[in-house]
Amino acid sequence: MKKITFLLIFTLLIGLISFNTVALAEDGEFVISNLEENDITIEVEKLKELPVVTKDVTSVDSGGNEDNYTVKGALFSDLLDSLGYTKSDLKAVNLVAGDGYSIELPENVLVNRQIILAYEIDGEPLGEKVKPVRVIIPEERAMYWIKNLTTINVVDMVKSVEIDSLVLMETAFGQLEKVDYTYYESTDQAVGISNLIEKFELTTNSRTVSFTAADGFEKDEQVDIFKDGYIKITGDNAPLFISPDIPKGMHVKDLLFVNYGSTSVCSLTEALNVYEKSSVEDMTGISLKKLVEEAGLKSADKYMLTASDGYSVEVSSSDLENGILYLEDGDVVRTTFSNLSKKFWVKNLLKIESIM
Amino acid sequence: MIFINKLTRKVLLITLIFILFFSFQIKSKEVVRLKEYENNNIERIFLIQNNEKPFSIVQKISVKGYKDNITMYLHTSVKEEKLTNINIVYQDETDHYGDYISKKWFLDRFKGKNINVNLHLVKVSPKNTNDVVAVTGATISSRAVLDGVNFGFDNHKRIIADLEK
Predict the structure, then answer these.
(1) ipTM of this predicted complex?
(2) How far, in Å, are A14, A260, A298, A317, A352 from residue A314 at the CA level?
(3) Of B67, B125, B136, the CB nearest to A184
């Protein structure tokens, strides 16, 4: 009899342990990788032991569409605290989703924003496609609100690099091979970014490249992902950063500036849409001084303007105030100055460099 | 007595001929299930015969997608040896991307493909007639559809070879 009772209790205990194990597995887990070179697996059960945060939030996507939720979860800062770290120890992190989508949280977002690791939305546990947690960053756009989080990868601090060269996309792309790019239901033209880098000998020591879009959207992307990509130069949302291996949410549309190392690659077409226009004689364009400032080009006494055929002229910083950049026939970049002779009026302008 | 003029008689006669013609056509088409060719991926397979000659093959194919199985119906023409139609009837892929693989513009990339050449997935643009461009950002789901089509092509060829023996 004693043996039977013992066996029954033993079986019951095993059953309970198995049940709990299944429950843990069902809630899921994610990994914080590279935390002082360690990978730490975080079970959602552990998150639930941390102080609970409940918040009404509104997500806004790139198209301006809004969705309202009530989310419940734990703060990333509390999770780090439980592991003996603070957000400022990390400098920057890369969030990775199950479908390969990844995005880097810039330092200002990481440090200044509340980052919620949500395990419940609108009073319901997360669905299969959203589990184990969804990252919620109130006041930031939906691109950071990663579903199906698999990894929080700790990365080094992004160092800001001074820009000393501004390359005009329209002229640069004219010198690159175009490929047909099948983009959803249309076939557009694109240039390979590896070709751009090779042709213009662009270099960087940074791990990331920075995008600024015409609507003010800013994003950093890993250089390796950038190098495998394309810039779609025709059709919807062009110039569009795109790559066949990344989810649509990682594309960046209406590129205004792409900062790669100390070079900023600029779309004059987008700049003309964004910035106030100036006129010189009968031509209308964007002030050279304005563009140089917006691109963050290193301040200098002189600037070198170089055309696609190698022709170059030097102008002073004060001359920039009297010059404009404009587009002729849609894609020919030209400069005109109100105070300088025609030899300074560069056709097919490729780049502007600070001369120290 | 009801008066029927010449025109009415002609219309009635033509209608009768059409009815007889289509009745014959319907009777002449036969659908045969070919269970022996079904397997884990090919859930159902039907041979459509016209006047007792193989006309087309319809296969219900299921393949593993990114999240779950993707189920499609594949129509291939025996005479033309081409894919004539493809429909996705079930998918549960990642939000948005699943919708894309069901869209006409994606499925149209398969239509007219020769069943004798297996399809090849490419990511940017097609270079060869058997290239199919994946949906941007949904390579795994696109590949699953393409794998399903290739299974269907292989099965089609096997059936026709057996029928010709």
Answers:
(1) 0.71
(2) 81, 24, 15, 10, 10
(3) B136
